[in-house]
Amino acid sequence: MDKNQKKNRNYKKTEEAIIEALVKLYRKHKNIDRITVKSLCEEANISRSTFYLHYQDMIDIFETIGYKFTKSLKEIVVEISKQSEFDFEVYIKQIFGLLGKSHELIRIGLSSEYPFVYIEKLKNDLEAFILNNVLVHASEKEKVQTMFEIKVIVSGLIDVVISYIKNGEKDLDKYIPLLNNFLVKWSNTLFV
């Protein structure tokens, strides 16, 4: 194993330790605002300087996770745009898989006062990405209507998922057919 692989592996292990410590402390305190960098470092058994090599502050943990999540969502949108016929079920399952991996962290993030800023950023990023992606072939005349529809759909879908996560629902699979039918009907209106 070369030096870079070992360094990368250690970096990932430390990130995992930080996340595990965060989840453990949240379960104990039931409030993200009661968790300090100091207590997180003690629980993760790392120094504060090691924490700051990974994150700027507690909020940065959620921003980093959110960035990775948004990046994965964008990759899924690109895959969808390559399809000639739209069936979103596979992609919805992928998105729910991403949510499943981060379910606890998303709930923790939603318990603080910060998430509203990030949620708006996530919505805006996805809206802009979808609008600029080849998925949308609207004429200039249809552009305003399409932009409005995308805003409503992105906001609605994110809010629905957040609502279910906040309420502790882990089995989102039963909603896949409903979401798929809705998105298929909507996407078909784009190309009429």
Word description of this protein:
The chain has 192 residues and is mainly alpha-helical. It has two domains: 1-55, Orthogonal Bundle (Arc Repressor Mutant, subunit A), CATH 1.10.10; 58-190. The protein has eight helices and no strands. It has helices at residues 3-29, 37-44, 48-54, 58-81, 89-110, 115-132, 140-166, 176-190. Helix 4 packs parallel to helix 6 and helix 6 packs antiparallel against helix 7 (140-166). The longest helix has 27 residues, at 3-29. The radius of gyration is 19 Å and the shape is elongated.
In short:
This protein is mainly alpha-helical and 192 residues long. It is built from 8 helices and no strands. Helix 1 crosses helix 2, helix 4 packs antiparallel against helix 5 and helix 6 runs antiparallel to helix 7.
Bulk shape: elongated
β-strand percent reads: under 5%
Quick one: biggest sheet?
Answer: none
How many strand units?
Answer: 0
Distance between the termini: 56 Å
- Number of discrete helical segments: 8
Percent helix, as a range, is: over 70%
Give structural attributes.
192 residues, mainly alpha, Arc Repressor Mutant, subunit A, 2 domains, 8 helices, 77% helix, 0% strand
Please describe the topology of this protein.
Layout: H1 3-29, H2 37-44, H3 48-54, H4 58-81, H5 89-110, H6 115-132, H7 140-166, H8 176-190
Helix pairs in contact: 1-2, 4-5, 4-6, 6-7
